[in-house]
Design goal:
three-stranded antiparallel sheet, 2 helices, six-stranded mixed sheet, globular, alpha+beta
Length: 117
């Protein structure tokens, strides 16, 4: 699972080498000024993510990489057994981040507190 950090005015999604391989990217960094908010999505379904390009997807196991849904571009890293936090963005190349985590409430609070300060 990626590491999610908020520091120096940025939200960072830090990926291990294996996660980088799955996503075909080095990671994602978003200025906090571009973050509108984070919410836990308890009804998320991998089939609703859209078209994957580039990235990795094995139904029921992992969804990782860039996904396109209608005109939206999303970064996704979501593994089996993880809950989802959706981070809405504005003024960034991605419209949202869909992040898998074992502590969805903690990640949601971390991000929302950071954008309020």
């Amino acid at each position: 699972m990626p590491k999610y950090e908020v520091n120096s005015g940025k939200l960072e999604v830090k990926l291990s080498w294996l996660e980088r391989l799955a996503c075909l990217r080095l990671g994602v960094t978003v200025p906090l000024g571009s973050v509108k908010g984070a919410t836990v999505d308890r009804g998320a379904v991998p089939a609703q993510l859209g078209f994957r390009a580039p990235g990795t997807g094995f139904p029921g196991v992992i969804a990782a990489g860039t996904f396109y849904k209608r005109l939206d571009k999303q970064f996704v890293y979501w593994g089996v057994g993880e809950s989802v936090v959706v981070v809405e963005l504005d003024g960034h190349k991605f419209q949202r981040l869909i992040l898998g985590t074992n502590d969805p409430v903690g990640l949601e609070q971390l991000i929302n507190r950071a954008i309020r300060n």
